[in-house]
Amino acid sequence: MNQTTRAYDRLRAEIIAGELLPATHLNEVRIAERLGVSRTPLRGALQRLDREGLVRTVPGRGAFVSELSLPDVRHLFQLREALETHAARLCARSTRRAEFSELEREFTVQHTVLAHGAGDARLDGYYALAEELDRTIDEVAANPYLTGAMAPIRDQLRRLRRIARRSPERVLLSATEHAAVCRAIAGGEEDAAAAASALHINNSLRHILDTAV
């Protein structure tokens, strides 16, 4: 792994995890020293993060961890809805759609687990299952352009998940919504899959906007 990739992977992970907070100044000298890379590959990593929306470069001032305003969040979810509903349709058309039956069962189990308390371990299990759903959708939709477009959006969503206040009720409802998406895909119901995906996305947006005020 070259220095640019190593610096990119490390900074991306720190931004998504919230270890580097929005508006944090990314001082090249200090970060290069901390990561053990030279400044030229570090700049390459920062440029890539800038293109993906995780970093904002200000001429004459340097790079900063990007902030997400409420209009940014709305725009992000509008694009998310367009991409994810179409991905759900592609999966519902696929000969591999039966794979989502097992995911539906797992989300139903997660709902039962979460109903008995949403501790960190339980939430980690739920979010890991949500990540598995994303990976399965990418594989079954089998459209690399669509997958590539969704990747930076998902990074921003992971950031938002840590910024927004976690509501046990919202997590429970989210598990139910994910199960509905999986059920519709497994049944080959394109319209229902797209509608279930849109419902989940819009409910998630409403929760984030409600907790941000």
Please characterize this protein's 3D structure.
The chain has helices spanning 3-16, 28-35, 39-51, 70-93, 99-115, 120-141, 144-163, 168-186, 190-212; strands at residues 25-26, 55-58, 62-65. The protein has a 3-stranded antiparallel beta sheet with strand order 1-3-2. The radius of gyration is 19 Å and the shape is globular. It has 213 residues and is mostly helical. The protein starts with a helix and ends with a helix.
Short précis:
By secondary structure, this protein is mainly α. The chain has nine helices and three strands.
Q: What attributes does this structure have?
A:
213 residues, 3 strands, 75% helix, globular
Mean pLDDT: 92
β-strand percent reads under 5%
Give me the secondary-structure category. Answer: mainly alpha
Order of helices and strands: HEHHEEHHHHHH
- Low-pLDDT segments, ≥5 res: none
Global shape: globular
Radius of gyration: 19 Å
Alpha carbon gap, first and last residue: 42 Å
What's the total helix number? Answer: 9
Work out the helicity level.
over 70%
Main sheet record = 3 strands, antiparallel
Number of strands: 3
Strand order of the largest sheet: 1-3-2
In terms of topology, how is this protein built?
Elements: H1 3-16, E1 25-26, H2 28-35, H3 39-51, E2 55-58, E3 62-65, H4 70-93, H5 99-115, H6 120-141, H7 144-163, H8 168-186, H9 190-212
Antiparallel strand pairs: 1-3, 2-3
